[in-house]
Structure formats: C-alpha cells, structure tokens
Amino acid sequence: MSMTALLGALELGLLTGLLALAVFLSFRVLNFPDLTVDGSFPLGAAVCAALIVAGANPYVATFAGAGAGALAGALTAYLNVRLKILHLLAGILVMVGLYSINLRVMGAPNVPLIGTHTVISDIESAGLQPKYALPLLFLGIAAVAAALLTWFLSTEIGLAMRATGENPRMSSANGINTGRLTIVGLAISNALVGLCGALFAQSQGSSDAAMGSGMIVIGLASVIIGENIVPPRLMVLAVVGAIAGSVLYRLVIGFALSGNVIGLQAQDLNIITAVMVGVALVLPRLRATLKRRSAA
Amino acid sequence: MNTLCRAALAAAALAASASCWAADKLIGITYYIEHPVVVELLRGFKDSLKAEGIEDGKGYRFETQSAQGSPVTAAQIAKKFAGEPFDLVLTLSTPSSQAMVSAVKDKPIVFAGVTDPLGAKLVGNLEKPGGNVTGSKDAPPFDKVFELIRATIPNLKAVGILYNAGEANSKSQVDQIRLLAKAAGIEVFEVTVAKPSDVQAAAQSFAGKVQAIFCPNDGTVISNFEVLNRVQLETRIPVFAADVSTVNRGAVAGIGASFYQGGLNAGRIAADILKRGRKAGDIAVVVPDKFDTAINVKTQQALGLAIPESIRQGAKLLGQ
C-alpha cells in the first residue's frame, strides 16, 4: 500500500467512523437493529448536495443533511414505538421509501459536486494538501462526535437510554419513557449517518441515488471489529473501538485492493475482505486459547 | 547465515521485480460493479490497445479494481490510484468516474460507459475538455430505434420504458426517448425499478397497455435482461433495444453502437495519450457514429412478428 493509499484508507475509515458510532448507538446501546442507515446515508448526501447546488452555504447544507437523517431515524422509531411495527420492518420501510424521496430531493439520480464550493473545496483552496488535511479533518470530526456521544451517554438521559436498551421492561417500570428515548436515540444515530453521507458526497464529488447500498454492513462490521480490538469495558472504549474498527475495516480493504500483487483479481475483493475480517475476529480468541493451554 | 541468505534472496527478488517493472507503463482500470456492459467495454478497450501493441505484460502493466457496488470502496480505489505512478486511468460508469476525477488531478483519466459526461461534471466541454479528463461517451441512437419500432409495428400507439430512476445514465436517456415519443404522438408508459428483483413485476405491468417495450441502456435492466426476455415471450410484447448485445440476449430487434465500440474508442484515446504523447484535455470526447441493426430471429419467430424486408437487409441476424 502506498502512502497515499494508506492516508486515503485512514480518511475514509475515520469518515465512516461516524457511521460506526451511529450503528453502535442503535444496535448496541438501544438494542434496536436499525436498517434506516441504507436510506439515511444517501438522504444526508442528497439534501446536502441539492442545497449546495441551489447556492446554499456548504456548512449549513452539511448540517441540513444531518438534520434530514435525524428526521428519518425519528420516523423509523415512531413507526416502531407508536405504530407497533416490528423494528426491522420499520427500518426497511423507511429505507425503501427514502430511495424515492432521495430521487425527489436531488431531482436526478446523480448530483455532481465536482468544482463546486464545498466544505472540502474550502480546505483545498486554503492551500492545504487534501491528502493530509482530509484525514486530519475527519479525525477531528470523529473525535468530537465520539466525545459528545460518550458525554451524552453519561448524562441522565443517556443513562436512561442505556437502561432502555438493556432492559426496557425494567426501565419503564422505573418511570423511564422508553418510547421517547428510542425516538431520540435513533434520531441522533441517523443524524450521524446523514452527516457522514453529506461529508462523503462532498469528498468524493457527487451524491448518487445508489450510494446507500451496503452501508449498514459497513457500520456493523466496524462495530464488531472494534469490539474485538478494543474490549468495550468502558463506554469511552466502546465508542473509540467503533471508530477504530471502521479504520481497520478500510485498511483491510486497502490491503485487499493490493491483492493483484499475489495474482488475485478485481472480482476477488469482497471474498478477500470477508476472509481477512473473519481472521481478525478469530485471532484474539485463538491467541487467548493458546495462552490458556500453555499456562496449563 | 540462514537469515543472511534469505535477506539476499529477498533483495535479489526485489531487484528483479523492480527492474522488470521499472520500465513498464502502468494502466489502472476501475469500475463500479460487475456487469455485462463492463465486460464488453473492457474487451473493446483491450482489443484496441492490443492493435497498437499495448498489452498487459509486454512493457505495460494493467491493474484492474472493482468497487463491487460499494461507493466507499469506489472512493478508496480512487485514492489508491492517486498515490500510484499510473500513466493512465480508465474509469467505467458515472460514479467511479466522478470519484476518480475528484481524487486524481495529475494523471490522464479516460472514461467510458458514461452517457452524460457534461451533466456528471466529468468534463466542462465535449470538444476540448481541458484538464486531465476525456473519454468515450455513450450515445444510443434513440431516433433510429424509434423508426425501427414504428416500421415493425405500423399502428404504434403506446410504448413502455423500463428503467432504474436511480441511474444517472438512464435519466438522460429516458428524457430523450420521451421527447421523441411526444414528437411522434406516441404515448409512453414509464415503469421504474429500484433493484433487480423489481424487473419482472415492472415488465409484467405493461401487459395490455403497450405494443412495444423500449429498453434503454439501463444497468439494472440490462443486467437482468433474461427476466425481461421471459416476460417478453409470455406477454408477447416485443422488446426493442438500443444496443446490439441486448438483441443477442433476446430483444427482438435493436439498433446501436455496441458497448464494445465504446471500449474501442476509449482504447484509441488511451493509445493517443500513451504512445503519441497527446494530452487528455486536448482530445475531444468521442461519440460513437457507427450503428448496427440487429434482429433476434429466435425471438422474432416466437413472437410471430413480421419485420419489414428493408430493415432485414444489412441487419445482423442473431439468435439462430
């Protein structure tokens, strides 16, 4: 892997770290398998791109993308909490519906942002080398998001949210409004996804209707890898682990992209990635078993 | 001793590989997702380079990467290519091309399989693109396909169009087809699909409404053309295509520049850059100008459709 490829993997891994935080919040904290992600990611991108093309300030547009994601998440939670639709199905309904909404928002399947004033182009025009500046920017954003999320989960509302995920029946018996907390939690989670989509569209030069597919898989893989490399004994470790997992996942794909050196072909990418992630998940346990055996 | 031996071997191997690679020119190829169109484009690209003496392993090295449908991986491939000493990069499909154009500013980029490079902001000008980007544009001859449909079905009143509204290439194609139909006073029924599994139900919904289905060069539909073909035979509504390879797969007839030709054109541009030292920004975006008419005899007989002799003459007869 060249230096540029390594920095590129870091940049994308830190950016999708936001997605990993979001999936950590929904799947792990709230225990809510939220599939809205595949729709709220392109929604964030679509809203942001449409606003930028309409002449809005790119920073405002980026936050609007996050806001739109929050609405999508709140809708999924509402369908589940108030209308009693199964959580998986609620997420699927919103995700499927968002495909059409995103096309409406963009007015076309693809809105290019190449050569447009964006958050990313500001960094380039400030004379900074995007190769180094973008990983730093996304590191900063991921760090701020991680710090805020860790802090939030230690506040009274945050603790109530964790209780909701751990044991909803006990929580509501203790006077916690679990329904409202689920709505707030999914709104925050999908705001992070929308923000990630908005930034991604700006960094790669377009918002595309097809860009949401497989996002939930990336988020889940990151969270699970993170739990393996950073044992989530404290909340802050779990949060940092999710981002670290996302970066590691990108690095794995970065190595898989170099598979041509050993005679692998382009179509082998996904299987190499799957095998490498699988090995990364099994290794720590294997090492622990070996250690135990040698101790005995 | 053992370590020393191994180190020496490794150094020798490295030197050997470095010396054979040092002189090689590097060509990077990337596409968004595995697809019949990608196969044809790549075959054309490689054939046309071969004719110029440019082949993988003979002074040139090709590196191919697929994003396998993931936008983040497409971005990662673009960033990887930015860091490697490529002499030329070929990008297929709109999203992969956009990611590459955003990430790579110092190497020539040639795109292919893109219908609207202006709308996608890959280039600012088709005649003289400037910058480091040029390529081969798809331009399906919809007017000719329309003439073909009207000649085959004389009292044509309504056609159906099936496409994925989420594909940048399809949007601009369907806009053109709609205009042509309106000018000819033909009603258009549009059905959109979002994923491969939608194709069957969407195609079946045309039954009783249209006399012909116009199949644009849509990734989702073409990838799953066998489904559309089955519906064609069931409902007996003929499907017309704007490219020849889709006729080979079962569409009753079509006129188009093959995707293979688009690949050939991209290869010719690449040879101009690699061998004749031209700058990408100085080379005009190539639009196909050679169109073939094709008829699938098997489908035609199954549907019992009569195709006028004037069209049969000079047409490629496929599916026999």
Question: Describe it for me?
Answer:
The complex is a heterodimer of chains A (296) and B (320). Chain A is mainly α. Chain A has a domain at 3-209. Chain A has helices spanning 3-29, 37-53, 58-81, 87-106, 119-125, 130-152, 156-166, 168-173, 178-204, 215-229, 235-256, 269-295; strands at residues 110-112, 206-208. Chain A has a two-stranded antiparallel ribbon with strand order 1-2. The model of chain A has no long low-confidence stretch (mean pLDDT 92). Chain B is an alpha/beta fold and 320 residues long. Chain B folds into two domains: 24-138 and 260-282, Response regulator (Rossmann fold), CATH 3.40.50; 142-256 and 291-318, Response regulator (Rossmann fold), CATH 3.40.50. Helix content of chain B is 45%, strand content 19%. Chain B is built from 13 helices and twelve strands. In chain B, the strands form two sheets. In chain B, strands 7-6-8-9-10-11-12 form a seven-stranded mixed sheet, with helices on both faces. In chain B, strands 2-1-3-4-5 form a five-stranded parallel sheet, sandwiched between helices. Chain B starts with a helix and ends with a strand. In chain B, 52% of the residues are buried. The model of chain B is unreliable at 8-20 (pLDDT under 50). At the A-B interface, helix 1, helix 4, helix 9 and helix 11 of A face strand 2, helix 3, helix 4 and helix 6 of B.
